[in-house]
Every structure is written in C-alpha cells, then in structure tokens.
C-alpha cells in the first residue's frame, strides 16, 4: 500500500510541475487550466501527505457471502454468509480479506487495495458484533506510526469457529482495540476514533442525511466524536452537496480548538466550518460569560420582544429632529413634532425590517407635505394631477434640508447601535416594560456597557440583524479599466494560490446558510441561540446531539420549544448512545450520585472499563489555592497526559494563578468552559460552589465530575460540609 501511495504522490507532484510549466504558455485559457490543475493536485498532495501516518488501521477477514456479488468498491455485497460457509465441524475458510483506511486507495488495475472507512464495504468492520457477526470472523485493528506497525489488536466475532486462511489457522492477537484506545493518555487535542467506532455509534454516523438525526447520550458516550465522524461521512456520501456546506456548532472556543484536528485526520481538510456559538456572527468572537441571572434574561424568548421594541425605539435616539421645514413650489411647508410622530408610527406598523421601512416613511412624509401644500385640488385631470405631484416630490427630495432631515430622523440602524442604545437603563426599562423585571433591566443594561461581547450578546446581534434587515446598499461600482475590456487580462496578474484554510475561511464568510447543520451539546442552547442557529439551516438537514442531564440552561422547556421551532416540522430519527467510553466505573459511579439529584430517575450510561482507582477526597486545610495546587501537582505525577482543574466560573482567574508554573499539561477551567472536554485526571474544586452558582448548577456539577479518563480528586471547602472521610455532602449516598 505504501508503494502505491508513493506512486500517487509522484503523480500529484508531476501534475503540479507540469501545470507550472504550462503556465508559461501565456494564453488566458492555459492559465485558467493551470490554476485548476494546480489546485486539484495541491489538494491531492496535501491529503496524501497528511494521510501517510497511520493510514491503514483496519482489516476484516470474511466468510463467503450469500449472493457472491461484488459492489462498486469491489467488495462482496452480502452481509450474511453463504449456506455452507461454515462446515459441520465448526471450521471455515476465509474467502475475502479487506483492509480499511482513512481514504480509499486503488491499485494500478483500479481494484481496491484499501477501502475508505466510510464506504459501504467497510460497514461490517464497525457493525459486526459477536451477537450479530455477519460474515466477519476476525476484526483486526492495526496501530502504526509512519510505516512501522506498533501493535495489532484482534476481536473475534465468531470465537466458536476455527478459521483457515490459505490453509493456515487464523491467529488472534491482543485484547481488542477499544480497550487499547481508551487507556491512552489524553493530549490537548481530540483523536479520531475510526479504528474503534462501536456498532451503536456507527448507526448514527451512517444514518441517512434526511431531515433531523437526533442523538442523546450521557457523558462520554462519544456524541462529539460521532458528530465529527458523521460530517466526514456525509462529505463522502454526497460531496457535491456538502462540500463547504456543513456547519458544526460547538459550545465554546475551547471545544472548537480541541476538536478541530479530527476532520483533517479523517481526510477532510477545509470542508467543514466548526464554530463556537459565540462566533457565529461574522466579525465577533465573544469571550465573556454573563452572570447566570443576566444570561437567563438574555437567552430567553422574552428578549425577542425587547429587541423588537428596541429596534424601533432606537430610531428616536441621538436628538432626532422634531420639526421638518422645506420649501416646495415656492411655499414654506412644515411638519411639527406631533405630526412627525404620527407618521413614524404609521410607517412602523407591521413587522417589516426597520431599515427597509425608510422608503415607506419617506413616502408618508411627502404625502403629508403634499396635503399641507394644498396642491392636491389644483387639477381635476388625474394625469395632470399625477404630474404635478411627481414634480412636487422631486422638488422636495432634491432639497438638502430634506435629505439631512431623513438621515437624522430615520437613520440606518446597525445591530451594534441598537445594543448600545440598550445600555441606558431608563430607556431599556421603557422597551422592556412588563417583559423584564426592574432588576433584570438594570443587570442587562450594565452588562451591555462592558467592553467586549458576551456569548449571549451574539445571539442578540444576530436577532437584531434579522429585525433591522440589511439596508439597501448602492452597488459598488467596479472601477472601469479600459484594458479590462480586452480578453481577461486580470488573469495575467500573478495569483497567489489559496491555501486550504483560507479557502475554508472564505467559504465560511460567504455563507450564511448551510446544507447540513450539526449542533453539539444541543442541551445548552438558549431559545435566542436556537433562533440564531436555525437561521443558518433553514433549508438544511440536521444532526443534533446532546444530553439533557448536562444542560446549563435553566429553562429546558422553553429551550425545547425554541429547538422545535428551529428544526421545524422535519421528522426526527432518534438514537440513544448508552455506553460511557470516557470515565472509568469508579468515577462514573460518583457522578451518578449527582445525576440522581440533578435529574431524578434518569439513567447513567454504562462505563466500559474500570481502573481500580477510586476518586480521592481532599479537604482544604488552610488556603484553598494551596490545596488545589498540591492536588494538581500530585495528579501530574500520576498520569502521562493532561490534568484539568474545574472551578466555579467566578474563580477562573484566581485558579489560573494557583497553577502558575506547573507546566502546560495542567489547565484551569470555569465549570461552563469544561463542556465537552476531557483530561487524564481532574480536580473538581468545591462541588457546592459550582452547584450554587446557577439554577442549573447541579447539572453543571455533573459535567465537571465526568471529565476524567483516569483519576478524579474532589477538593472540599467548608461550605461543602465534608464528612470525616472528606466526602462532600453533595456526593454522599
Ligand atoms: N468507539 C470509540 N473508540 C474509542 N474511543 C471512543 C469511542 N467512542 C468514544 N470514545 C472516546 O470517548 C471519549 C468521549 O467521547 P466524546 O467526547 O465524543 O463524548 P460525548 O458524548 O461528547 O461526551 P460529553 O457529553 O461528556 O461531552 C473521547 O475521548 C472519545 O475519543
């Protein structure tokens, strides 16, 4: 396979060189062709080079299939073995061996050498289980680095069989791939799971892209991993439709950074936009978190009404003029405050976007002036009357005073300007009367006054954009260069090749709607955020993954309603993931106690492994910071990978100071920032403080307790009321 890959790389390099030479023949046609060729070859080369590491990871040995037919990828299509494939004495011959890799490779005769993991022929690699083995006898996972095989892990799907390959008995090596993968140390970036996707996960990844695929599962069940692999699968299935058209919405920039590398490792570079919920509006990257009570107000549906009022109210700011004076047909005409107010009200009736109502307001102003001028009755002939009217309008609208008045009286509003207007508490109070209570008004106004936007502000900006509408812009005139008119001279200008990343960014910027939207940690979206995400997928198919038990949003019913509105009446296909691949049983059992308090009656996912290491409980002796630092240092010695220290949001900055100098394997996180992330070991600081911080605090604590793959330490302060063994009240039986 590596020999074949080298040939492919040479081919791609040859194409690049050839194209570069062709470029020296300067006809525009040859140049355009060169650009296209360089682009294609570049993508190909980049991809092959990327894939070289750990390229081939799987192998299945199969019995003869039932129908003996081969599919388009050269593999037998039947899932079930043929009659007689297994002999009476439980022996059988292997009829076919398939190798599975990150992308497909064909040999010189176009026969499959390696099958793409997403191809139908690869499905048995993931779907086969000892309960329902199909044709698979042995599934092998190969771990390699470069060209060196590091290890091989076999799973026998038909352990009762003695199978022969070319007359030799099939050997079995290792304890299975899954356990090997789960035991590995974690780094600050997520790894793909292609080599060990489990059957229930595979069903989701390969679900048809129709309408809405809805996935629920507890912490560590692989929801994020499945969402990412599904994006790669959809691209493989229908590249034309999905290339550049998939959006993954992630709760935090930290989770974006953590997951970003997975798609390239699956052979998909630059085709999927992964965005944090606070970065969905172009030009904004929200870094602030609002206090829970502010977030609750800003995220709720109630805000929609406030914004609608604010968008209309903001027209009257900045000393809007209260009188209009013009001269028409040699007469002075004047509209007073009260009349102007009436005209504004009439223009604003209905729900059309405010910026688009300006022409209507202008028309109403002219009507009023016309009426005042008394010219309406001058002619009985309708044609003459119309002519008179149009010259009257022209007279006025070309007058500087009128133009200046209109700009001040009906300014073009931007979302940011309206949010700024909302920083005035009295004004906001007017717009939010009987919608927000006075306490909320004060806090929201104050929070908007800070420098920088919060995550929740972004959904408000997006909503305002919809309420205001894009103002009609005069089209930018292209500067006319007479030389341009000749044959595409611009093609002769040196063009810098666009990198994959630049291409992805450009596509993302140009796009406001997507063909497929994947929402990760969907339980956390507020109603206002659902509206924002919904606008990006009005004609899309969807994959929604989440876990209600981990929701940090305080009003789940309201959010569910918003979600249903965003997804519309599209039918749902529901899936449930049931196995926890992250936490060992010892940690999962402890977290289950909080789950019972947070959502009585809901079930924890089953942990697949146990480490024998019980969670450790530590009580603050003197200084909280010192204890936490000591515990983090202790864990750093015990694990090879990362350590996460999870604290209440208000302690974030402080916690970073506590850990200064311990190195970059350890990080401090606020409870909300821990969403979706994982570490070899975690220190959870003061469960009571995390739980008390917001109305959804117990669910946030549940998230915090389920981040570790190996070890967990819980640090209790006084308010945790630890018992003699240091176990805090919230975590006792
Ligand atoms: N089939 C698998 N093979 C190997 N590792 C897996 C598999 N499925 C999940 N994992 C690993 O388990 C961990 C948890 O997966 P992931 O983060 O996708 O879970 P999640 O359901 O999104 O969790 P949470 O709800 O807590 O955010 C990851 O390290 C992931 O790589």
TrEMBL record:
GO terms for molecular function: 3'-5' DNA helicase activity; ATP binding; DNA binding; hydrolase activity. It comes from the Bacteria. Residues 196-584 form the UvrD-like helicase ATP-binding domain. One of its GO terms (biological process) is recombinational repair. ATP binds at residues 217-224. InterPro entries: DNA_helicase_UvrD/REP (IPR000212), P-loop_NTPase (IPR027417), UvrD-like_ATP-bd (IPR014016), UvrD-like_helicase_C (IPR027785). GO terms for cellular component: cytosol. Gene3D superfamilies: P-loop containing nucleotide triphosphate hydrolases (3.40.50.300). Residues 546-569 are annotated as: Disordered. Keywords: ATP-binding, Helicase, Hydrolase, Nucleotide-binding. This is UvrD-like helicase ATP-binding domain-containing protein. It comes from Streptomyces violarus.
